[in-house]
Fold these 2 entries.
Entry 1:
Amino acid sequence: MRKKELAMEVIRRLKEEYPDADCTLDYDEAWKLLVSVRLAAQCTDARVNVVVEDLYAKFPDVNALADAPVEEIEEIVRPCGLGKSKARDISACMKILRDEYNGKVPDDFDKLLKLPGVGRKSANLIMGDVFGKPAIVTDTHCIRLCNRIGLVDKMKDPKKVEMALWKIIPPEEGNSFCHRLVNHGREVCTARTKPYCDKCCLQDICKKVDVK
């Protein structure tokens, strides 16, 4: 089975297995997803969802967060780890949104990449989830599973994986496909335990690269 054919079959099966897969970060405005994505680096989404409740209770909008002392932001977000750098990036990012974008998150990939603390993974997530545009989010689950399944070959660099997937994943499928990989990576094709291949919906087509 060629990679493109394999990709289409994987997409079809994961759709059946996880029909309601979505972003696991809680947000109701675009700027909040921007904040949460920065906090989620080396931290679980579940913890981020708890921490941001306190952050938004004190600083409820872009202007409030832009005006907030960095030290106060850091005090709240510290449980997410890397508090100092995350607080600094969030503060700088909110100031740019306030001063250059009228408090709105830009719907342009390159403009997103210029925001402090925003890399390709974060920019793709926002493009896909907020603006409904083609996106491929190469987080750790995506990279691990795509290598195991055989959609990419021994690629660990997120950008290289992203570029390889753009060639075989239909643009309109990319965002939801990556959300489904997260679900599958957490529930079945796990990282810290032996993957549960016996209950995997992909077991007969997965190449099981590096799976013992």
Note: The radius of gyration is 18 Å.
Entry 2:
Amino acid sequence: MANEESKDFNRMLHDNKDMPKIQIITDQKSIEKYGGKRMYFAPPLDYDQVMKQVPYGQVVTVGEIREYFAEQAGADFTEPITAGIFVSIAAWASHQRTSDKTPYWRTLKAKGELNPKYPGGILAQKEKLEAEGHHVIRRGRKHFRYYVANYEAVQWAIKEV
């Protein structure tokens, strides 16, 4: 995304774009990659609602949210590209609100990686996570990536939202 400060992310958050829906895919490579044909699309607001539930000191990954949605919808998997976009929309929408904030910094990418597309980038997410007691580590030699150390130990188990 670009020009985040000039966009109305709260409007985007409430635009369901005819979702939720399940789409049957026929591409064999995708079926093998994701383990099935029934692909679920969750609306942006659903991501925000789950992200709001993550308790202080705990984290969740986008993948776990996707698995939860697929299970709830009776699908094989949740579409990954829109999931990443909608998580970012939820983060920016929260950033633009003065109340009813979403603790988006607790939602991580795969393997506990921090998300550079959140408001303030990696540094802001790192500061918020460290303020909650997490240890953030840097990996890589040229292209650094940041991760919550031992994120599995503080993963939030998604229940009914």
Note: Strands lie at 21-24, 38-41, 60-61, 77-78, 107-108, 136-139, 145-148.
